[in-house]
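Meet my pick.
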Amino acid sequence: MSKTRINPLSRRPRKQRLVVAVRGAAGSGKSVFASSLADAGLGRLCFFDVERKARLLPGSDGTKYDAIEIQHPDELPEFIDWALEGEGREQGYGCYALDSWAMYFGRKHRDTVQAVRERNDDPTAVPNAEELSNDQMIFQEVLRRLCIDSGACVVITDQIGAKGKEEREENEMGQVLP
């Protein structure tokens, strides 16, 4: 039985795409920047609105792009699946925005902490390493689906810490880390 050889050069990217995280303080225009993908000629924008403020942006009513309000963080993976594989695929999305990572992560982490405290009947309990690892797998899956599986341009917004905490950020390279 001979093994088929794969030519590594056959794996060159065939499509130009940009994946970028935009970090800034509240009110600095991150959401406006993310919504500008609708004007980039990349196809219809699917705007995952975790902050539920897209209604304030021009064109979010469906005239320029589809803003989808995420009411609970557990909905986000399902909505991403809908956009990439389900009925949403028929919308012809060519680019995606997630507004914001901080809101998604914060709400999801809060749910984990609350569950641990209720389960242990201890208001100061914190998640153990395994529980945090389980959450990390969910977070990585959201990023993988959007940034890799979509094969599209993606903008993810994120907030920086309060004034004076900028220097303490562990990731100041502007990278979305797995």
About this structure: The helical segments are 30-35, 75-84, 101-120, 129-149. The longest helix spans residues 129-149. Residues 171-178 have pLDDT under 50 and may be disordered.
